[in-house]
Amino acid sequence: MVEMKQNLTCRQALADAFQALSDEAVKAGWPEGDVALALAELAEERVIEVTAKVIVEGFGHPPLIAAGGGRNS
């Protein structure tokens, strides 16, 4: 439960900046669908990087993995 609340708080903190980034890309002329897909792909790459770091460094599981939020769950 704590991890879910922490995730929600993090999402709320990032939401405005994320929307602003998306809006700027659309204003620059990129189609909204392309922007959404690019942001999703960048987020996925970041999750992979963080997960790899956790595995290599031997720390505990990142919240996304521990919560069963992997792509193939």
Task: Give a quick rundown of the structure.
The protein has 73 residues and is an all-alpha fold. The protein has helices at residues 2-27, 32-57, 63-66. 77% of the residues lie in helices and 0% in strands.
Q: What does this 3D model show about the protein?
A:
It is a single chain. With 73 residues, the chain is mostly helical. It is built from three helices and no strands. It has helices spanning 2-27, 32-57, 63-66.
Kindly list the characteristics that best describe this protein:
3 helices, 73 residues, mainly alpha, 77% helix
Assembly state (oligomeric): single chain
User: Roughly how much helix do the residues carry, as a percent range?
Assistant: over 70%
Distance between the termini: 19 Å
Sum up the overall morphology in one term: flat
Question: Low-confidence spans: pLDDT under 50, at least 5 residues?
Answer: none
Largest sheet: none
Helices and strands, in N-to-C order?
HHH
Structural class: mainly alpha
On the 0 to 100 scale, the average pLDDT is: 84
Helices and strands in order, then pairings?
Blueprint (H helix, E strand, L loop, with lengths): L1 H26 L4 H26 L5 H4 L7
Helix pairs in contact: 1-2
